[in-house]
Design goal:
Length: about 240
């Protein structure tokens, strides 16, 4: 939170244990922390076990002290070695398992492992990607920013600490118009992710009011990870500075 105040908006790097080995994760973590990414998130929709998550977190912890926040797709992808966990409720899922069921199963584990729980109202929009299929979610169309804003306001009233607008990994990024409308409706920090590759896209989303911008696939597809993330971080900070123009 302090970093958001200092920099206007921050970047987080998502690593999917299904697609990344511990060695690769360590290399990514080293480079993104040098590039100014504020935290590393670990998780994915399919193919992730606790053991895989542990191995990735431990590999990262050996090379950097950047905070590691779990982004679990299931209660069995929690690691005792992480710093915190996004305690996610998929608000627009049609299946109560993804709204309160998995959370009920995971809560005792979070407590046992001593993880800081960051409650997160998660709203899937646009194409939605794999996460929308897995979580039985009918994503909100990009043309309905008012519905996204209503979900976000409900999340704030229900006491969620953070709101996440998810476009889906590898899908079309969330349009700034939706970000702006949600930002104008709620006061809790807003996280936006899914399909963000270009600095220009990140800048517009930040300028529209996102506090935290997440990229995942970008580091899997880039040779020079540090340079790619440094450009995204710079664009995010520029976007935040130009918010009122
Ligand atoms: C996190 O799903 C995103 O919100 C990650 O998306 O892999 O497209 O960056 P990308």
């Amino acid at each position: 939170m302090e970093k958001i105040r200092e920099r206007g908006a921050i970047h987080m790097t998502l690593i999917d244990p299904d697609k990344t080995t511990p060695d690769q994760a360590a290399k990514i973590a080293r480079e993104v922390s040098k590039a100014g990414s504020a935290a590393i998130m670990i998780g994915g929709s399919t193919g992730v076990s606790e053991r895989m998550t542990d191995d990735i977190v431990l590999a990262i912890k050996q090379v950097t002290d950047i905070p590691v926040i779990l982004f679990p797709g299931t209660p069995s992808a929690l690691s005792r070695y992480a710093d915190a966990v996004w305690f996610i409720s998929v608000l627009n899922s049609a299946n109560p398992y993804f709204i309160t069921g998995a959370q009920m199963q995971g809560a005792p584990i979070v407590k046992k492992y001593g993880l800081e729980a960051l409650s997160l109202g998660y709203i899937i929009v646009g194409e939605g990607g794999t996460v929308s299929i897995v979580s039985y979610t009918r994503p909100l169309p990009f043309g309905k920013p008012d519905v996204a804003a209503a979900y976000a306001l409900a999340a704030e009233y229900m006491g969620f600490q953070f709101i996440y607008l998810e476009g889906g990994s590898g899908a079309k990024p969330v349009p700034p118009k939706i970000v702006r409308m949600v930002r104008g409706t709620v006061s809790v920090p807003l996280v936006v992710g899914g399909g963000i590759r270009r600095p220009e896209t990140a800048r517009k989303i930040s300028q529209a009011g996102a506090d935290i911008i997440v990229t995942g696939t970008l580091v899997e597809k880039t040779q020079d990870i540090q340079d790619a993330i440094a450009q995204i971080v710079k664009a995010i900070e520029e976007g935040a500075r130009n918010r009122n123009q």
